[in-house]
């Protein structure tokens, strides 16, 4: 699994990226793991998580502990002193059976099931298990579509959990579907042109999706024009403005932010075309220059398909 983190911006204000490895399961036992309590945050960068440490949740981290579960207290011998180290499948089952309800309780009404945070667990690792450690930590991570783990800052319950990216980010593509951020020079589904706080316009009351669409239709087109330099540039590049909306469950959890983005759809199927290059410069769409492509048709209904799967 790869972690992709924003490492800053270059001279042209384009996002720069670095990738580091991360463990697919668990972390070796150690003092930081063994003493991590509910509400504390953990960080690591090495592939085997041997440098796992507790950090202030206000700092960059990769896991927020939502529950500490001692498996040795379970009835039967499955997790007893002589028990073998569980398989990855079994840990996945424990994540569903134990961690999901436990972390949901930890977050309370602030958990957005469609938001940026996923419920996961870390375990003591095989060495720790053989030494008798049977405690797992359930918690929250920001995991992308591809399984990439993104850094977190701040406690999850105090965040707007909307899945949004900064202006200028390009979101990768796989089989006509969006994935995770990639450099804009690589094939991508769309480019983010702005972020809108729906709460500033609608207040606290939940706006039906149709109302969100009507508002975002104008707002996102304006943000696209500002981002590209002119309203005409969107048509010249053969692109269309897209946006996300918020469900009632997300709204009740406090999620108010949506991205406005620009991309191109592939015919009647509704999938995304592969774009190479930033829309502020020269691009190709499915290998063609914009001048070689017919003008895009307007959306059949106000709004756009959800930009982030699951939101």
Automatic annotation (TrEMBL):
Domain Septum formation-related: 39-260
Origin: domain of life: Bacteria
Protein name (database record): Septum formation-related domain-containing protein
InterPro entries named in the record: Septum_form
Location of region: Disordered: 291-311
